[in-house]
Amino acid sequence: MREDVLAGLAARGLLRAEEGKVLGIFSTTRWPAGDSAHELQVRELVTGALVHGTTPDQRTAALIALLSSVDAAHKVVDPDAHGVDKKTIKNRAKEIREGAWAAGAVVKAIEAIQAAVTTAVVMASVAGAAGSSGS
User: Fold this and answer.
1) Are both 64 and 105 inside the same structural domain?
2) Beta-bridge partners for 19
3) Is the pLDDT of residue 119 over 90?
4) Pairing assessment for the beta strands 18-22 and 26-30 based on DSSP bridges
5) Would you say 113 and 66 are in contact if contact means Cβ atoms under 8 Å apart?
6) Which of 20, 66, 94, 113 has a Cα-to-Cα distance from 86 of 20 to 30 A?
7) From the CB of residue 134, how many other CB atoms can be counted at a distance below 10 Å?
């Protein structure tokens, strides 16, 4: 699915594929912005909501909720460049996350995924410990 999404974004001109090598051995593909105008527009909307207190549209609120749930809102909006601290941005992102019904669905989905991954890791650890103690 990841490759389909990236290919679709490249077809729209939002990203471009750059093939390369890591350490001269491993093949890698980078996906830099093909046209940064879209990214700049999204950053302006996010900054407006997190720094200037504007009311975000549904799409921006969902994006902010996603950023908040992975603790990354302060990485998209540079606090120093806007004269605010990280905590202010995090708190505003949390307010938006908790106040938007669509955003709430995003947060619940991420929490469910994180819980499933944690459960899988714990179960693998328990199975590994049980297997090694029985030898």
Assistant:
1) yes
2) 29
3) no
4) antiparallel
5) no
6) 113
7) 6
Are residues 41 and 105 both part of a single domain?
yes
Domain that holds residue 19: 1-34
Q: Is the pTM of this model over 0.70?
A: no
- pLDDT tens for 5-62 read 888 888 888 888 888 888 888 998 888 888 788 888 999 999 999 999 899 998 899 8
What is the pLDDT at residue 13? 83
Q: Is the same domain home to 11 and 23?
A: yes
Nearest to 97 by CA among 110, 86, 106, 84: 106
* Cα 50 from Cα 13, distance rounded (Å): 28
